[in-house]
Amino acid sequence: MNKKIALVTLIEASILLSSDDKLALIDAVPGFNEKQVMALGKMLAEERAVLLANEETIMQTIKTKLDAISAEAQSDTVYIGTGKSS
Amino acid sequence: MKNPHTDAMDESPEIPQKEQVVLPPELEKAMSGARDRVTAEAKRPETDILERTAGLGFAASMKEAITPHTKKMGEVAFKDLKAMIMATISLVPLMSTGASVARAAEKATRLEAKQLQLATKAEKVAQKASKSGVLVTKEIAAADTAVWKAGVKAREAFEALVSKFSLAELNQYKHLLAKGADPRVAARIAMLPVERAALFEKEISTGVEMAKAFEHASKGIDTTTKWAPFGEKLMFGKKMEIPAGKIKYGARVGAEHVAEGWLHKTLHTLDPYPDVPGLVSMVGFLDLIPGVVGMELVPAGWQMIANKIQMGKEQLGMASDVSKVILNKLGVKFNKLKEPHVARAAEVFMPQAAQAAI
Fold first, then answer.
1. ipTM higher than threshold 0.85
2. Residue in B with minimal Cα distance to A85
């Protein structure tokens, strides 16, 4: 697979990158030199490997934290600034 | 070149035309397809919610998962730890190193400005709360606005001073704090919330230079013992007991926002979702501080997240559990990583054996 095409594929599939980041990077790919392509490609390949290796842990951690946020959002407590009003 | 007004030959040099780069058809097709799919995906409310709300938990989770692997990432051809971390979490700032990606850098600057704007709004909310007595004690309702303003100026000077720490140093400090080691190094961070208040009082009242005050305050300071409970109170918005008559309220409020401002400025580069307010970004850092456990937030950050959860519900047009939507979306993204063509692309840069070793 052509390296720049592989790079575009990894950019699109990345989880860490936001949509804005992805679009900016995709547009920038044609201007990358070999060194930049390899560095960024390795980076994204590493990201993919790390994420897949820790998928279960990450998803469980996020679920726990999202549940806490949602529960807080549904409470009647009102937060003002840096203190809780009772 | 002919001058259109006089018809005479213009001696001014012709403006050189930009070199037209012809992309290989396959690359152009790949880019076009990816661009269209990412754009379409971004418009979906679930994606917006995921990127704006779930970034909080995701940032902390990614840090937890990625920390053991940072050594392996040394294989990547980056010059220093800062570039490596920034590349790991947010690649847009990294791209400012190349002339061909100036647009990406400009976008990063706008995102940074937006985040600072959100952090500033949170600070204003805290300022108003201080007048209502919610921040710390009833006496804080009489906070001196002039002292507050001086504290803000001091923060800017402090940030300029602290900016001399490279991200590599700062990350080294966090690592040491987590191990409870090297008091001298940890003191530089540990002193921020406690001593900064006294520093500001001194600076505001006597005009001592920030750099000198910083050095003075950093000597012989007991670190984690002081930092953990104070940090917990500071960051979690609990009531703080001010030693009577020793610290000016305004200076202390200013001190809080110096600590928050500095951490925000440093940590936003570690946040994969720059739209998440800087106050919220501190969670990942706090997880490394001894004695500070759990994912509680400064309530100003809670307010923003709660608002976004509500916005998410409104965007989805139903009262369903936004968390489930986010988790489903994340599940889809993980599945995409496993698709054969993505696996082949990854193998171009990292052999399967190396991937399996992680």
1. no
2. B134
